[in-house]
Amino acid sequence: MKFCPQCGNKTINKSIDGAKRTLCSESDCNYVHWNNPTPVVAALVKHNGKYLLARNTQWPKNIFSLITGYLESKEEIEMAALREVKEELNLDGKISAYLGHYSFFEQDQIIMAFEVEAEGDLKINHELAETKYLTQQELSTYNFHPLYITEKIIKKWLTLSA
Description:
Blueprint lengths: L10 E6 L2 E6 L7 E2 L4 E10 L2 E7 L10 E4 L6 H13 L2 E13 L4 E11 L8 E7 L1 H6 L6 H14 L1
Parallel strand pairs: 4-8
Antiparallel strand pairs: 1-2, 2-3, 4-5, 4-6, 5-9, 7-8
């Protein structure tokens, strides 16, 4: 960012609270870009007795993960997870378990994960290339590489469902 989004003056880099920050060069403006992580929700969807994974259209073949999406302004976290399930899969769901929160430093995100029991007729939207269904046993041994956060979420889920 070269210019302040508040006043239009040039920005500078400076150490604040022990971290390099971008701030406005105009001392009266007080704008600081804190670069806080973006909140993301993830849903492990159970549908028709199996667990549903999806492949994003931007991902290589054989890379599948949970249903994910950004938390919107003034949206409850649980409602965001259910909204993503509806938008991406056309399924109605209910939260059955909280699976924890995970720092995803590479994308500057914090991911809040849930297990969702869903019903309805599956119809994927434009964001997804394909889906696959796995049993709990298949999910417990599924190779999520390189999606290590998804693997952490599934490991946590396995301890909760044991």
